[in-house]
Amino acid sequence: MTDILPAPTRNDPNAVDAGGRLGLGLIWTYTLSRVAFMLMGVLFGVYLMKFATDVLLIAPATMGLLLAAARLWDGVTDPLVGYLSDRTRSRLGRRRIWLYGSALPIAVGVVMIWSPPAALDGAALVVWMAVALLVYETASTAYLIPHAALGMELTPHYHERTRLFGYTHMIAFIGSLLGMGVLQLMNMAEDKRSFAGDLSVVAGITVFSAIVLTTRFLPEREAFQGRGQANVVRAVADVFRNPHARLLLIVFGIETYGMASIMTLTPYLVAYVFPLEALLVAVMMTYALPQVVFTPFWIWLARRIGKQRAWTGALLLSAVPFIWFYFLDEPGVTFWVLTFLCGFLAGCGAVVQPAIQADVIDYDELTTGDRKEGAYLAVWNLVRKCSASLCALIAGLVLQFAGFVPNEVQSEQTIRAIFGLLPAACYLLGGLLFMRFAFNEAEHRAARAIIDRRSMSL
To answer: Which of 115, 99, 433 is nearest to 250 (CA)?
Structure first.
């Protein structure tokens, strides 16, 4: 990779070797800012809905609608950021300049969401939260899409991509651990609103610092500058014209809904179905830890039997523990085993899916000649957010119409159904669909050979 654009201060020639293998130092540099995002992600995914309904006293349906509205806004910003990132020309690189620009607005958005003024209530509080979500989601889009696109560009090698995203998943778990520790402190805090306000300031400073410091040392491929699609509509349309990307995107959205169910509904499950609210963090750790511990296993399995077969099997098997949760009566040993299995199987998608995504972007280059990772990540980011917000919206509406009353005894059956049966159906459908995926190692190798010959002739 002789076309690496060095970071402003220095360029480590060993960051990517001649065979395309990424150095661990580069992987750590790429991933460290994600640690801060994972910390916030735990709080947003696990506790924001409950914080809004139980602490801020916003109606569940209202909060669900706010999250859904934020996703509608993402429908504008995601493709726009992806397109502009692909087309950006800068001495800092087409991705790094976006990372720098997003840092401060992200920090401001975090503070706004978790520390609304105490004087606000009713409609005024709802408006504040709507604006806060708008600021945070727009800024995070300006970071996440270019950052992920940069990761897709670091290596063109089929199995090295699995290694990159596997290590990224493991390193980012540090943020999950920190997030769960903070979540435990949040649960223990007598004044949760005050604690959340103090926490938001620390989190804002942390994410700002992490983005600015790590971006300084990230390399980019200079040859990719200016190779994005000139027309924004066509750039997005090309994603859907790519048959391999189209199928992968559908399955990704389905799996994301299933995972979002865990993040959104676990606090309700342990509070209103099983008497385990004091062990919420332990439950989340039991889910999250096997995702990381078994990452080397998924990297090995993907190399051994192929990325598509590994992920298909994990998707189909994931339905089993969720169905079992629906019928489980007591939170005994079985509860913890099922939680562990959910986490273990979810780890496959976290490692394999982004590696497959990078492969199908190569197929796009083969057919169009463009390098538009930003457009692809924009569509993926939008689908991810829409799936997660759809989960929150459905959960909020179902809870609302089932007569949910904060901090009171609830009907168990409703929570069991939206936590267990809906995700199980998603995983089954996703696994069955992904059995049709046909752009695997041999097909990718052939595509890369054509692309490389074409590049050498230029």
So the answer is: 433
